[in-house]
Amino acid sequence: MNLELPTPPSTNQPQQQKFSLQVDSENKSTEFKIHSIAKPHMLAFHLSWFSFFACFVSSFAAAPLVPIIRDNLNLTATDIGNAGVASVSGAVFARIAMGTACDLVGPRLASASLILLTSPAVYFTSIIDSPTSFLLVRFFTGFSLATFVSTQFWMSSMFSTTVVGRANGFSGGWGNLGGGATQLIMPLVFSLIQNIGSTKFTAWRIAFFIPAFLQTMTAFSILIFGQDLPDGNFHGLKKSGEKAKDEFSKVLYHGVLNYRGWILALTYGYCFGVELTVDNIIAEYFYDKFNLKLSTAGIIAASFGLANVFSRPGGGVISDLMAKRFGMRGRLWCLWICQTLAGVFCVILGLVGSLNVSVVVMIIFSVFVQAACGMTFGIVPFVSRRSLGVISGMTGGGGNVGAVITQLIFFKGSTFSKERGITLMGAMIIICTLPLFLIYFPQWGGMLFGPSSSKNVSEEDYYMSEWNSKEREKGSHHGSLKFADNSRSERGRKLNISTRPSEDVTPPQNV
Predict the structure, then answer these.
(1) What distance in Å separates the CA atoms of residue 334 and residue 491, rounded to the nearest whole number?
(2) In 3-state terms, what secondary structure has residue 501?
(3) Which range is least confidently modeled, 49-53, 59-63, 218-222, 225-229?
């Protein structure tokens, strides 16, 4: 049950709109119909996941072709390791910047701009001629992975609290499918071009025009068909006064000082960060260890990424279902359990020596680690209303930091064998997931303790603490009030809407 909060009369109040889907008081959809392209909610979903998919294909297009590229460019194991790190390191700061950009100019313009800025690097891959140029194109192409942040921000802006987990899960998961699809697409494209008559050292270069063109076209699709919010685009809503203009410094301040965002950034580094790492190493791992054909190794490696078709979305759905019964505490518990199991199976993957067993364990591992990614972004939208983009960027950036650190420690050069590196990576997953026990929402509780009874903090108190009295006098906080009302579902079955504080009550500043 959602109640409309009273708002002061204003000449800038948007007129009541009719949508194809049921919406809440923020006009966010309370339904998630995956086969629909209804504007603006479901159309935004399909634009977001496919654009992220295209960027993922571009960023990892080189991975399945490494055995060919390394022969052409005389790459060493260190060169390959450095390039793998470069492919995920560029997006670290890009994701943080993307989150802030989404808060200020909206996900549509932010994502399309980044896609167009990074697509030339994909085209330039076809003309590289040295280890250094190979590293540089992978580095700059990897910036496009920051579109994940705009994808999650967009879904959190379009879908209500009761379905936001699955919306984020499906959009992120289907986008991540690019990591598996490229393991199939690039060897196939390479083979087709080679069969037409090109030499193998020419065929792999021509093959890169396919992901480059796909990425470019998605940017124009977003600009033409996309919409930032249910009510319109950021620019138009700010110009009309229907959306308050926010200050960069305050958006950044409230995001950076929320410790929950930092913990989620760490734990995401060891679910999504691990996924990025595996995307970079798994084809070469099976190719070398079991002496497989390039196409066979690509198919096996693809099965890891392709599990995203159901695993990450499944994580989002499970997160929503757990929240319906147990509230936010249910979301936290299911994330910890799932990610810890991912660590256990990662350890096992590095220990087994049979091809068949390795494939089975890898698939089980992929399901758990990708489901944990979906569960993480079932929590992210509730950390902050005002600084949603910053929190999304911090968390997404944490995923890339985890990938960089993991590859630098375990998969760069010859310090560890890949088998040993995979086992140690699994141990890191288990350890770095433990901080989830420290996340606590005073209005909902945490994994070990329930909501604060002494402070009696409500959802309004928590989200309005991000606005000072002057900003509240201007009415800038009204969006937070509506979100607070809709987020009461995070209490689980003990939902109680009888105690709503007045708008005029000054909220506590340290929640």
Answers:
(1) 16
(2) coil
(3) 59-63
Q: What is the pLDDT of residue 3?
A: 41
d(CA 205, CA 190): 9
Residue 357: the pLDDT is 94
Instruction: Give the integer Cα–Cα distance in Å for 229 and 237.
Output: 9
Cα 279 from Cα 83, distance rounded (Å): 13
- pLDDT score at 414: 67
Neighbour-count burial of 507, counting CB atoms closer than 10 A to its CB (0-12 exposed, 13-18 middle, 19+ buried): buried
Could you tell me if 119 and 216 are in contact, meaning their C-beta atoms sit under 8 angstroms apart?
Answer: yes
Cβ–Cβ contacts within 10 Å for residue 76, how many? 12
Predicted structure pTM score: 0.79
Helices (H), 377-414: 388-410
Question: Residue 198 above 60 pLDDT?
Answer: yes
Which of residues 132 and 251 earns the better pLDDT score? 132
Tokens of 479: 């969006």
Residues 6+ apart with CB under 8 A from 42: 21, 29, 33, 34, 36
Ranking 4-8, 241-245, 422-426 by mean pLDDT, the lowest is 4-8
Tokens of 170: 């499906």
β-bridge mates for residue 446, sequence order:
440
Please tell me the distance from the alpha carbon of residue 398 to that of residue 404, in angstroms, as a whole number: 10
Dist CA 147 CA 49 (whole Å): 9
Which residues are paired to 29 by β-bridges? 23, 159
Mean pLDDT lowest for which of 167-171, 303-307, 440-444?
A: 303-307
Q: When comparing pLDDT for 212 and 509, which is higher?
A: 212
Contacts (Cβ under 8 Å, ≥6 apart) of 29: 19, 21, 22, 23, 41, 42, 158, 159, 160, 163, 230
Section 435-459 average pLDDT? 89
Q: Is the dihedral of CA 327, 328, 332, 334 positive or negative?
A: positive
Q: What are 363's two structure tokens?
A: 């698939």
Rounded to an integer, what distance in angstroms lies between the CA atom of residue 141 and that of residue 83? 11
Domains of the chain and any CATH numbers: 41-229+245-308+357-364+383-407 (1.20.1250.20)
DSSP characters for 112-153?
HHHHHHHHHHHHHGGG--SHHHHHHHHHHHHGGGGHHHHHHH
Average pLDDT over the chain, rounded to whole? 87
Better-scored residue on pLDDT, 239 or 62 = 62
13-31 exposure pattern, b = at least 16 Cβ within 10 A, e = fewer: eeeeeeeebebbbbbbbbb
Compute the distance between CA of residue 330 and CA of residue 332 in angstroms, rounded to an integer: 5
